[in-house]
Structure formats: C-alpha cells, structure tokens
Design a protein that fits this description.
Tscrpt_reg_Rrf2; mainly alpha; Arc Repressor Mutant, subunit A; WH-like_DNA-bd_sf; DNA-binding; 6 helices
Length: 145
C-alpha cells in the first residue's frame, strides 16, 4: 500500500516559506521536493483553496503564505490536502450477512473513530510556527556542536 506523504512534504515547504519570508516558485518548490512543477501547482492549488497560500503570476511571482505560521495548524494543511477524514478505515464488505465480518467492522470503525479524534486534536494543537521553532533550535544546536 502506497502512503501519501503530501502532508509532511507540504508542511516542510510551508515552514521553509514562512521562515524565509518570501515567495517561492513552483519550480523552486519542485526542486526542494524532487518532483515536477505541475505536481507542485496542483498541490499548492489545494492549499490556496483552503486559504493557506496565494499565488501571483508573472516575473517575481510565485506562492506565498496568506497568514503567519503561528496561525496555520497541521490540521489546516491536512484538511486542505485530504479533506475531512484523516484516517481511512478499510472495512471488509465481502460477506455483509456474516456476523464475524459485521463484528470485526464494528470494532475497526470504533477504533478508527477514536484514533481519528485523537489525531485531529493533536493536529489542531500544533502550529507550523512551533515546527519552525523546533527546526531553528535544532539547527543552532547542531552549529554549536
């Protein structure tokens, strides 16, 4: 099963953008992520629709944050990229009349709902500014070492 790494990758990009305080082109972001600028534009468009970034075309244009890192949470980025559901509960529907399958699905649904609520609270609690602060402190500590 292929995992979707867009959340971590876009948090990385957004924190860099916030720390550098300027615009980044799709081409530059694509270089940072080792991907294609078209993929970047499509992903950034999702963030734009959610009000996290804005874009300006032409010479000197690019993507920029619409608000400070302290006002953007992991949950904001996750919702922009993946919608309302954080975890997807893959249930079996091969034998809907089977009591074992129904019981297993019921237990899995409850476990996923509980995990989703916990993850949502944590994602809402953590801002991108906090991630930037940790990164800067780590970089400073590494320079001293």
């Amino acid at each position: 099963m292929r995992q979707d790494g867009r959340l971590a990758r876009m948090i990385h990009v957004l924190v860099h953008m916030g720390l550098l305080g300027g615009r980044e082109t799709s081409e530059r972001i694509a270089q940072m992520l080792n991907t294609n600028p078209v993929v970047v534009r499509r992903t950034m468009a999702s963030l734009r629709q959610y009000g996290i970034v804005e874009s300006e075309g032409g010479r000197g244009g690019g993507w920029s944050l619409t608000r400070p890192l302290a006002e953007i949470t992991i949950l904001d980025v996750q919702r922009a990229l993946q919608g309302e559901t954080i975890l997807d509960a893959p249930l079996s529907n091969d034998h809907p009349s089977c009591p074992v399958e129904r019981a297993a699905n019921g237990k899995l649904e409850r476990a996923f709902e509980s995990a989703e609520q916990t993850l949502e609270r944590e994602f809402q609690r953590v801002t991108l500014a906090e991630i930037g602060e940790i990164a800067m402190a780590t970089a400073q500590a590494e320079k001293r070492a």
